[in-house]
Amino acid sequence: MTCYGRTAVVNYRGTLSDGTVFDSTEGIEPLEFVVGSGTIIHGFDEAVAGMSVGERRTVTIPSREAYGDYSEERVEKSPMYAIPNAKDIKVGKLFYFITDEGLRFPAKVTEINEGVATVDFNHPLAGEDLTFEIELVAEKD
Hints:
single chain; mainly beta; Chitinase A, domain 3; 2 domains; 5-stranded antiparallel β-sheet; 42% strand; PPIase_FKBP_dom
């Protein structure tokens, strides 16, 4: 079984509850990550931690273990003049806010009304239960 601290090499396909594919390694290189490092969503990490090389597994990860539950508290109103590069922002399009510390936060403007933007800071997959078909291809020290 894959142990924490080891590098896992996986192929995967991620789908939403309606069957829509939201991410996949199909046609690209497998994903490599250090198990337990916190670089991927918790539920995916835990699933891979219990797998052996060559094993395939399908897991459904509840939203709270993926990108969290959707929260109305993460939807804010902001005057357009306070948003950098506001002229480039389109309603419904995902963009990133960058903090003074250099952290990036995905956000989506859901409405612009009289110079005020409604900005949704929830992750695009917040509130979604995610199903992954995972194959552990290899592991490295």
